[in-house]
Amino acid sequence: MKQERMSAFVKDGRSMLLAYDQGLEHGPSTDFNDKNIDPSFVMELAVKGGFDGIIFQKGVAERFYTGEVPLIVKVNGKSALVKGDPISRQLCSVEYAVSLGAKGIGYTVYLGSEHEAEMFKEFGTIQEEAHDRGLPAIAWVYPRGGAITNDTSKEVVSYAARAALELGADAAKIKYTGDPISFSWAVKAGAGMKVFMSGGPKAPTDEAFLRQVQGAMDAGATGLAVGRNAWQNSNPMQMAAELRRVIHERKVEKLLPTAGPQAP
Length: 264
Ligand code: FBP
Fold this sequence. Notes:
The chain is α/β, with parallel strands linked by helices. It is built from twelve helices and ten strands. It has helices spanning 2-5, 22-26, 28-31, 39-48, 58-64, 94-99, 116-132, 154-167, 180-189, 206-218, 228-231, 236-247, and strands at 15-19, 53-56, 71-74, 76-77, 89-90, 102-109, 137-141, 171-174, 194-198, 223-226.
């Protein structure tokens, strides 16, 4: 049933989502250039680049969402200005997200933060409200705070996937561990829940990024939710085409040396 809730965003079991909530999360001077500071540019990339979904905060969705690609509204957020263990609180109701056209609800949980209990509780309510409307609840699970020393280790990333499953997420967006074998353990920890690799800061080369995406797909991920590595690229349409080749057309050689997911 959970897989059906994600069906608006998944084709042949695979998906590529375009994330554009970094203006609030990071600040405009950190991530944007003259082109991608315009949300219309990213909306157009989502459409022409063949993305399966677009992720906006409500204010951007209100003004720039055109309805041509399924929408995920990120219903919580925080700025980069406050220091200490992070907390990201709800900013938009599920009902309002639906009124904007959302087919999915996104929420970030900072696993390991001293405030995780508040985010768990809020996500729990949002998940139930989303499910009441037949919509998926998609959890960005980012281990962060003083308790976390390595947020891309196999142990921590698989914990993120398992936490998302147990919190009732239909899909989890988690960081890549760096290799397909360790990432396959995180996919396994999700026990059938859809797992998306999070894009992260722009990789040094396109090839390096595409190899990460290929590794995540080989590990059994459903797909990728990417922002900066797509719309910061000097040729975002070409990057979108390459991502389609890896994710949907399966045109790159297998990187995973063994037949299937490995136990730890
Ligand atoms: P990127 O591909 O740009 O990393 O976007 C994915 C994302 O999860 C965004 O949705 C979010 O704004 C950002 O990463 C959070 O980044 P950070 O890890 O710096 O908090």
